[in-house]
């Protein structure tokens, strides 16, 4: 994977992971009104898998682009904050412009 493609993949997965969090919240609200647990189970699995993929891609991008530990931690912590992908995406976009 090249330096640019690792950043592009990370941006895409960060967006999808952030949106899956919103779907999970919606599923939990739905469960609260209806008592159906299945949507939460499916959304939770998808969100968890995307979170793991995000972590793996962040590790790859960090090593390939030789980012500072601080920058990588900020991007990683943004995945723990609700809607944090909105904070991380402009920073990743700037790194994409710098990448060879």
Essential attributes:
100 residues, mainly alpha
Structure, explained:
This protein is mainly alpha-helical and 100 residues long. The chain is 84% helix and 0% strand. It has 4 helices and no strands. Helix 1 runs antiparallel to helix 2 (38-65), helix 1 (3-34) runs antiparallel to helix 4 and helix 2 (38-65) runs antiparallel to helix 3 (69-78). The chain is elongated, with a radius of gyration of 15 Å. The model has no long low-confidence stretch (mean pLDDT 92).
Number of helices: 4
Largest sheet, strands/sense/barrel: none
Which radius of gyration do the C-alpha atoms yield? 15 Å
Shape: elongated
The SSE order reads HHHH
* Low-pLDDT regions: none
How is the quaternary structure best described? Answer: single chain
Q: Which structural category fits the helices and strands?
A: mainly alpha
**Strand content range:** under 5%
Q: Helical content, roughly? A: over 70%
* pLDDT averaged over residues: 92
The beta-strand count equals 0
């Amino acid at each position: 994977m090249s330096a640019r493609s690792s950043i592009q993949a990370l941006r895409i997965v960060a967006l999808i992971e952030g949106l899956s969090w919103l779907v999970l919240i919606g599923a939990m609200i739905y469960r609260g009104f209806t008592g159906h647990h299945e949507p939460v189970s499916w959304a939770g699995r998808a969100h968890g898998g995307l979170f793991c993929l995000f972590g793996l891609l962040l590790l790859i991008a960090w090593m390939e682009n030789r980012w500072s530990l601080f920058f990588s931690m900020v991007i990683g912590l943004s995945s723990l904050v609700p809607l944090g992908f909105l904070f991380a995406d402009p920073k990743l976009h700037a790194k994409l412009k710098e990448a060879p």
